[in-house]
Amino acid sequence: MDNDWKKRLGTVYSTNPDFEYEKDNEPEAETLPPQQQSLKVSIDRKKRKGKSVTLVTGFVGSEDDLKELGKMLKTKCGVGGTVKDGEILIQGEFRERVMELLKAEGYKVKKSGG
Question: Where is this region: Disordered (predicted)?
Answer without folding.
Answer: 16-44
